[in-house]
């Protein structure tokens, strides 16, 4: 950490060299006859902050759930840092990924959900250290040191000994952000992380995320309905409609000069 308590590059993605970090190739996802993603192709370079916007039901959360392996694609492949998430190579052939392979690739990904999903029976510190100690095998002291740094970064140092039920929703979400970063993921997935919060708590969480976006080089893939936040943090914005990316580009282009009629309609409805 630097003297002014800003996260340093040490807390960020060690491999943010602009190389391709996420790749969707021809990914289709259906629920029954509902085609939620239709031959989706897109890539995210390491260190970039990419925001997914678009109407409800257009498939944004499905992208994040596929990356978390909470869902499997019906067609196509997904790669994370050069490794197939959905498949693995055996004897030169591509076969469906086994559990061990998926677990390894998943370590590169951290996610913060709408509902904070903290462990209610564990204090703040243990919520953050549990996975680094038990999944990564980090020594407890090292995990706790890192947890303290992250708590400082999200402004919760004085709440280190509390339980989730003793914190506001905004504070719980900031613990969830620290917990995701404690695993040192290469990419942070953010799924409408302020949607479940009371309005007065939203700004504090978005400020923490702005800070992380601006002072670390972690890759972010973010689904949000907060357009000002998207404008502030994004390198690229992808506009979804009916399971396809219909328009993409810099926040300046998408928010100031959208080309697609659906993008214009969507933006005027949410502003
Ligand atoms: N487990 C599921 N079973 C059946 N249908 C699902 C399931 N999960 C998502 N869907 C459907 O997939 C479509 C896309 O959902 P998704 O959550 O990806 O949309 P979204 O763009 O993130 O929407 P929102 O902004 O409202 O969160 C919707 O029609 C939804 O009803």
Distance between the termini: 37 Å
Strand content: 25-35%
Radius of gyration: 19 Å
Assembly state (oligomeric): single chain
Specify the biggest β-sheet: 6 strands, mixed
Q: Which stretches are low in confidence, meaning pLDDT under 50 for 5 or more residues running?
A: 1-14
Could you spell the SSE succession in H and E letters? EEEHEEEEHEHHHEHEHEEHH
Bound molecules: adenosine-5'-triphosphate
Number of strands: 12
Assign a percent range to the helix content. Answer: 25-40%
The average pLDDT score comes to 91
The strands making up the biggest β-sheet line up spatially as 8-9-10-3-11-12
How many helices? The count is: 9
Secondary structure class reads alpha/beta
Gross morphology is: globular
Short characterization:
The protein is α/β, with parallel strands linked by helices and 271 residues long. Helix content is 35%, strand content 26%.
């Amino acid at each position: 950490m630097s003297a002014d308590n800003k996260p340093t590059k040490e807390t960020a993605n060690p491999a943010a060299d602009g190389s391709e970090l996420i790749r969707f190739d021809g990914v289709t996802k259906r629920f029954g006859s509902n085609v939620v993603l239709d031959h989706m192709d897109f890539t995210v370079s390491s260190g970039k902050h990419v925001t997914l916007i678009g109407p409800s039901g257009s498939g944004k959360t499905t992208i994040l759930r596929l990356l978390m392996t909470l869902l499997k694609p019906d067609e196509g492949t997904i790669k994370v840092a050069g490794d197939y998430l959905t498949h693995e190579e055996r004897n030169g052939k591509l076969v469906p990924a086994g559990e061990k392979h998926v677990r390894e690739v998943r370590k590169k990904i951290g996610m913060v959900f709408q509902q904070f999903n903290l462990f209610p029976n564990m204090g703040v510190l243990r919520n953050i250290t549990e996975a680094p100690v038990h999944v990564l095998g980090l020594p407890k002291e090292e995990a706790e040191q890192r947890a303290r740094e992250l708590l400082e970064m999200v402004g919760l140092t004085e709440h280190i000994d509390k339980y989730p039920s003793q914190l506001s929703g905004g504070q719980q979400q900031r613990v969830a952000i620290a917990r995701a970063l404690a695993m040192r993921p290469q990419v942070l997935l953010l799924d409408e992380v302020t949607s479940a919060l009371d309005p007065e708590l939203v700004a504090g969480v978005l400020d923490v995320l702005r800070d992380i976006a601006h002072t670390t080089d972690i890759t972010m893939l973010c689904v949000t309905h907060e357009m000002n936040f998207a404008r502030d943090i994004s390198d690229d914005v992808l506009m979804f409609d009916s399971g396809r990316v219909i328009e993409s580009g810099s926040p300046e282009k998408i928010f100031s000069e959208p080309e697609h009629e659906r993008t214009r309609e969507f933006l005027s409805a949410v502003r």
